[in-house]
Write a structure and sequence with these properties.
The complex is a heterodimer of chains A (163) and B (185).
Chain A lengths: L1 H7 L5 H20 L1 H18 L9 H22 L20 H9 L3 H11 L5 H8 L3 H20 L1
Helix pairs in contact in A: 2-3, 2-4, 3-4, 4-7, 6-7, 6-8, 7-8
Chain B lengths: L1 H13 L5 E6 L6 E6 L2 E6 L3 H11 L4 E3 L5 H11 L18 H10 L8 E2 H7 L6 H9 L12 E2 L12 H10 L7
Parallel strand pairs in B: 1-4, 5-6
Antiparallel strand pairs in B: 1-2, 2-3
Helix pairs in contact in B: 4-6, 5-6
Classes of the chains: A mainly alpha (163), B alpha/beta (185).
């Protein structure tokens, strides 16, 4: 059973996934959920990955696979936050994004207020550097729809920025 | 990042998700890659670490993580051994990488050769129940996944010639000399 599988897909030692992709997963999560929640999401992402790893059938894009898991953890975090009272740091002080200049955190915070699909698509495109096919796979739509979500998200943000 | 990874590995250990823990250690034989499963020490590797880890991922489980704490005891015992302060190892062994009963019998017999003493390939074949399988015993010893701890360096040719060694003859010579064996080495 296991022997047969490993002769088809040769999975590298999990340590190499950590060595190669921990930085990019963390960068993505910091953008997607903010620096505090990124820590928990990071742990959850790699623990989930480690649980699922021996059953993985395709080792051709391990970085993309990890980002997809990180994306799901980010969605969980967004949902959990929606059920909680809004913490002070998320009060709409960034409704005026220009107050903080064009610093990246303010921009990411603006993205975090986008509708779910647009938010995911923008983060996966610009914080995780996925292409549209990969984004489509991660959020469950076609690459064309993924591109539209990115474009719509960017348009909304640009409007907020220019105000 | 290091602290973040340490937290992750500790959680993975608690949840039983680290099938193979590894660490590296310096020694007079060069860098050794040490690997353990929950059952015990499974590999002491002479080749470069990446090669050893690839082999472990393919043969045992791809859940291979750097978790040095699980190998602290082995590393300490190896340090003591190379300092001449230890003659026996007291670590649990996982024989998973030894695939046939004959090879396992040869290596388990080898593990009982005392410090400073030697045996022959023929002795080992005989002890494994097949007096004529000298060549097979040599192959079993050459494929020993746990050298040093399972002291295949103590097995010599009949007549006292050093014979071969998976880590190369120089490493075998160093180990034998360390144990005070200097006849013709």
């Amino acid at each position: 059973m296991g022997v047969r599988r490993s002769s088809v897909v040769r999975l590298p030692p999990f340590q190499t996934l950590l060595d190669d992709h921990a930085d990019s997963v963390l960068r993505y999560l910091r953008a997607a959920v903010g620096p505090n929640e990124a820590e928990d999401c990071f742990q959850e992402t790699f623990l989930s990955a480690l649980r699922a790893y021996p059953g993985l059938r395709d080792a051709s894009n391990l970085g993309g696979w990890l980002i997809t898991i990180a994306h799901r953890k980010a969605l969980d975090a967004h949902r959990a936050r929606g059920r909680r009272p809004v913490p002070v740091e998320h009060l709409p002080e960034a409704a005026d994004p220009k107050r903080e200049g064009h610093s990246e955190p303010a921009l990411w915070r603006a993205v975090r207020r986008l509708p779910s699909k647009q938010r995911s698509a923008v983060f996966l495109r610009f914080a995780a550097d996925l292409d549209y096919v990969q984004i489509g796979q991660a959020i469950g739509c076609t690459d064309v729809a993924a591109r539209q979500n990115v474009r719509a998200g960017l348009a909304t943000i640009r409007k907020g920025w220019a105000r | 990042m290091n602290e973040r990874i340490a937290t992750l590995v500790a959680r993975a250990e608690r949840e039983g998700l680290v099938d193979v823990a590894y660490a590296t250690t310096d020694s007079p034989l060069g860098t050794l890659t040490l690997a353990a499963t929950p059952a015990g020490l499974v590999r002491v590797g002479y080749p470069d670490t990446d090669t050893v880890l690839q082999e472990l991922a393919g043969e045992l489980s791809p859940r291979v993580l750097r978790a040095p704490a699980r190998l602290d005891a082995v590393r300490r015992e190896l340090d003591e051994y190379f300092d001449g302060r230890r003659r026996d190892f007291d670590v649990a062994i996982d024989w998973s990488l030894v695939r046939t009963p004959f090879r396992r019998a040869v290596l388990e017999r080898t593990a009982r050769i005392p410090y400073g003493e030697t045996a022959t390939y023929r002795d080992m074949a005989e002890a494994a129940g097949s007096r004529d399988a000298v060549r097979a015993a040599g192959t079993a010893l050459g494929a020993n996944p746990i050298p040093v701890i399972v002291p295949c360096h103590r097995v010599l040719r009949t007549g006292g010639d050093m014979g071969q060694y998976a880590g190369g003859p120089e490493r075998k010579r160093i180990l034998l000399q360390l144990e005070g064996w200097n006849k013709g080495v």
